[in-house]
Design a protein that fits this description.
UDP-galactose 4-epimerase, domain 1, Rossmann fold, alpha/beta, binds NADP nicotinamide-adenine-dinucleotide phosphate, globular, 2 domains, single chain
């Protein structure tokens, strides 16, 4: 551990898992001013954010999770850490979520667990919070199993189902791949039949922080209000960066033979009722970001 939080801990510290990730880092950045804050990292020790103390943690190690949680005794835990694939998918994404939930319940911490729209089957959109998981691929199965274990271990937890997390400054990994491909003239195909309720990382982080201070329990959809296909998003992104959208070929998820949920549109009526945070559409988020022709280096 290094750099203990400096603010007073009248209300108890917060712990953000995966604070080196796209979402966790933004949560830590926004929450740092309002609470003493600890963030966990696993393999990447990135530049520290002001006001954030960092601790290395493998959430797939039950003893390590318990040691860290007992030592820091957070009042709030926002759990973003995960693995999307690979041999550690089950250990980190499923077991890790369960260890965090057990530890949170044991010390009475408020838990906000981040889940995903890809646990849905993609054939019955739009989905409200009552939608039952019907995952099509191992990552979807893992997120569904994680939800179930979290619900069992920490029934008071908020479980946030979200969608593609976007950012343009700097671009999130998928946007960066699109931009780099266009810059380098690499062929790129995006599906017209994979629909997502993309959410801006700043909005999602603010919503998670807001939820941490509420008592809402169970599943809550927190996503953007503008369902778009990956192809439509790519076209908009290209135009935002002054690149030629014609470099993107329209493809079909169905025809590709890949087992992926196609339309995961999330109904966010409940989130709009519960939260003050405004969940901006994809178009609004792009308009809010300064239009920026980019010169990125070649991707390795
Ligand atoms: N990105 C999306 O479009 C999207 C869409 C829907 C839902 N979600 C959900 O949102 C959450 C955050 O996603 P993200 O895109 O922000 O993730 P990300 O950028 O890939 O970051 C993943 C984080 O998990 C940490 N991590 C990996 N293995 C770990 C382990 N064994 N123990 C502890 N931490 C570990 C990483 O730490 P190091 O970097 O230090 O290794 C990193 O901080 C996930 O729960 C994901 O399922 C994401």
């Amino acid at each position: 551990m290094k750099m203990a939080p400096t603010s007073s801990q009248l209300n108890g510290p917060w712990l953000v898992t995966g604070a080196t990730g796209l979402l966790g880092r933004e949560v830590a950045r926004q929450a740092a001013g309002r609470a003493a804050l600890w963030g966990t990292w696993f393999s990447r020790e990135l530049a520290s954010l002001d006001g954030v103390g960092y601790v290395q943690l493998d959430v797939g190690d039950s003893e390590a999770v318990w040691r860290v949680v007992q030592r820091l005794r957070p009042r709030v835990i926002i759990h973003t850490a995960y693995r999307k694939e690979g041999p550690d998918l089950q250990r980190v994404t499923v077991q890790g979520a369960a260890y965090i939930a057990h530890a949170a319940a044991e010390i009475g911490a408020r838990l906000v667990h981040v889940s995903s729209d890809v646990l849905l089957d993609g054939e019955h959109a739009p989905y409200d919070e009552s939608a039952r998981p019907g995952p099509l691929h191992p990552y979807g199965v893992a997120k569904a199993d994680a939800e179930a274990l979290v619900q069992r271990a920490a029934p008071n937890a908020a479980i946030v189902r979200t969608s593609l997390i976007c950012c343009v400054q700097p671009p999130d990994p998928i946007s960066a791949w699109v931009i780099d491909s266009l810059l380098l003239g690499r062929p790129i195909t995006l599906f017209t039949d994979e629909i997502r309720s993309a959410v801006w990382v700043q909005d999602l982080a603010a919503a998670l922080i807001e939820l941490a201070d509420q008592s809402f329990s169970g599943v809550l959809n927190v996503a953007g209000p503008q369902p778009l296909s990956r192809y439509q998003m790519g076209q908009r992104l290209a135009r935002h960066y002054g690149l030629d959208p014609a470099g993107i070929t329209a493809g079909s998820s169905l025809a590709s033979g890949l087992r992926r949920p196609r339309n995961c549109t999330l109904d966010i009526t409940l989130a709009r009722r519960l939260l003050r945070t405004r969940l901006r559409s994809y178009d609004e988020g792009l308009a809010d970001a300064a239009p920026s022709p980019v010169m990125r280096g070649p991707v390795s």
